[in-house]
């Protein structure tokens, strides 16, 4: 017997991942002083870290030492060079991201319910939004850059969509405006999951222990029951952290299925091929890999742009091309910087001053897959998004439409006066096929992987969790993070993840009672 199994640490709940959903769950469960919780977090604390807590410094975190930085597999119809940033720090991706805050649309939740997630419809989910502790406010007046304001005016005129002030006030199908953000405008500090939920309580609650820089590499199962998590601390010590009540996985859409697979929970044939002993054959683990892919169109401006901003992408546009579609079917972020990382690989050059529009696909139809390539838990999993592989090319066509609409906006005042020339794809690129080729090869991710442990009806053999978020066929093991999304919301997903966290707390507490 190894030393750690002689003296395991025991808590009521072990939460794996102190990220977006994990922070909510840990803070809420420990409101009851009789409940003990351990959070196993792979990264360090965000407390006192200006580089993390200052929202506008977000690009500095990409690819750095607080980023797990996952590659994609070869994408024959897309961009094989995309790096998926996933945060390795308390607060998870809410400590890394741009904190654009959209309550999922009613049609998004209703789609989940129709996909078998009973009890997750729009009417039931509304209450969880009201519970969120994050400071969700519109981009502050002082942060509204002149060129972003002119983008809003030009988009309204060119596309004929309503101007929206407060996207979360009521459901919308189209519109342009400044976003709501989870931030504190007075000092540009994040209102991430960790800031809003953990910082106020983490030093005070004796019943909450956060294990920082500690990696969960395997679940401990006794028969069909999850009883703990094997972790490796920063110092390399291996410890079994036991749960009297439940283990709750909140490691995100990449690392939750990765941990399940390394614990022998997943598609039998895949596990056997790698020599991982099968603990529970669950075919859906790693399937249904979703994302919001985007492309980019960049303009050089006549000169420098005023410097004020919340995080350099403060406004956006939603379009509904198909009037029968329940909600928007094309979205744009407007960047007041020239976002040329991917186009540069295709030979384009970054202008000194410029702006970008990034059309994305709110409801992508391509579905990918995450799988292991090694039984070694330290080897990153393979992420095959199968970008732009849907049968009728809905995804590729959406980006082509996006570039055309972006050009219409750029031709319209008051934005037109700022713009000197289109840098990429360039005005000479006009045909459907050429535009599609550019859009797919210069594609990027909006950093929204989801769906790899999707929720579904208890009898659905491809579902990984049931509508109570319990892993099918196992006991005392739940998942609550972006991996449970059955389908992608049309909007940026972080608020949806926080709401999953709030609902998970209720489900866990309900079962404990
Ligand atoms: C650059 C970027 C910009 C984005 N912008 C926005 C935006 O503006 N608006 C929006 O709505 N969404 C945005 N997103 C997406 C959004 O942030 C994520 O969908 C959401 O935060 C995911 O939450 P989660 O709880 O599923 O996972 P995470 O928040 O990633 O949490 C997972 C946590 O688990 C930890 N962990 C993982 N594996 C292990 C392990 N084995 N052991 C221990 N700990 C582990 C990680 O360190 C992390 O803290 C963005 C994402 C990124 C990366």
From TrEMBL:
GO molecular function ontology, one term from the record: flavin adenine dinucleotide binding
InterPro entries referenced in this protein's UniProt entry, alphabetically: FAD/NAD-bd_sf, GMC_OxRdtase, GMC_OxRdtase_N, GMC_OxRtase_C
Pfam assignment, any one: GMC_oxred_N
Keywords: FAD, Flavoprotein
UniProt key word Flavoprotein: yes
Sequence intervals crossing the membrane: none
Entry binding sites for FAD: 89
Cofactors: FAD
Ranges for domain Glucose-methanol-choline oxidoreductase N-terminal: 252-266
Entry's family note: Belongs to the GMC oxidoreductase family.
Name of the molecule in the record: GMC family oxidoreductase N-terminal domain-containing protein
């Amino acid at each position: 017997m190894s030393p750690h199994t002689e003296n395991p640490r025991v808590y009521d709940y072990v939460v794996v991942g102190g990220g977006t959903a994990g922070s909510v769950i840990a803070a809420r469960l420990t409101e009851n002083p009789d409940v003990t919780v351990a959070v196993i977090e792979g990264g360090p604390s965000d407390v006192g870290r200006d580089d993390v807590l200052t929202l506008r410094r977000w690009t500095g975190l990409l690819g750095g030492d607080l980023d797990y930085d996952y590659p994609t597999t070869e994408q024959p119809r897309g961009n094989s060079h995309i790096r998926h940033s996933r945060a390795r720090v308390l607060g998870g991706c809410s400590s890394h991201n741009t904190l654009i805050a959209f309550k999922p649309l009613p049609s998004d939740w209703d789609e989940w319910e129709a996909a078998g997630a009973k009890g997750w419809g729009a009417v039931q989910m509304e209450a969880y939004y009201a519970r969120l502790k994050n400071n969700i406010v519109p981009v502050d007046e002082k942060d509204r850059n002149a060129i972003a304001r002119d983008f809003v005016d030009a988009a309204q005129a060119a596309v004929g969509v309503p101007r929206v002030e407060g996207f979360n006030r009521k459901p919308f199908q189209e519109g342009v405006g400044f976003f709501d953000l989870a931030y504190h405008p007075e000092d540009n500090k994040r209102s991430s999951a960790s800031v809003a939920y953990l910082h106020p309580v983490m030093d005070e609650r004796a019943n909450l222990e956060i294990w920082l820089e500690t990696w969960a590499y395997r679940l401990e199962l006794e028969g069909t029951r999850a009883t703990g998590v094997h972790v490796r601390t920063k110092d390399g010590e291996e410890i079994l952290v036991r749960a009297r009540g439940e283990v709750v996985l909140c490691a995100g859409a990449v690392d939750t299925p990765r941990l399940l697979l390394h614990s022998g929970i997943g598609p039998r044939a895949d596990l056997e091929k790698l020599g991982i002993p099968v603990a529970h054959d669950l075919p859906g683990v790693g399937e249904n890999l979703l994302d919001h892919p985007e492309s980019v169109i960049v303009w050089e401006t006549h000169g420098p742009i005023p410097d004020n901003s919340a995080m350099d992408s403060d406004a956006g546009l939603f379009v509904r091309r198909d009037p029968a579609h329940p909600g928007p079917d094309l979205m744009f972020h407007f960047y007041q910087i020239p976002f040329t990382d991917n186009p540069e690989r295709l030979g384009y050059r970054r202008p000194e001053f410029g702006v970008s529009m990034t059309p994305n696909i709110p409801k992508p139809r391509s579905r990918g897959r995450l799988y292991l390539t090694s039984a070694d838990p330290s080897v990153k999993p393979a992420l095959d998004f199968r970008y732009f592989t849907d049968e009728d090319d809905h995804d590729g066509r959406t980006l082509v439409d996006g570039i055309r609409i972006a050009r219409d906006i750029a031709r319209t005042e008051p934005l037109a006066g700022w713009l000197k020339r289109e840098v990429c794809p360039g005005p000479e690129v006009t045909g459907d096929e050429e535009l599609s080729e550019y859009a797919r090869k210069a594609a990027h991710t909006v950093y929204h992987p989801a769906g790899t442990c999707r929720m579904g009806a208890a009898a659905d053999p491809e579902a990984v969790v049931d509508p109570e978020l319990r892993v099918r066929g196992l006991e005392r093991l739940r998942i609550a993070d972006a991996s449970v999304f059955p389908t992608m919301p049309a909007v940026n997903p972080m608020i949806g993840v926080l709401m999953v966290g709030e609902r998970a707390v209720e489900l866990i507490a309900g079962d404990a009672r």
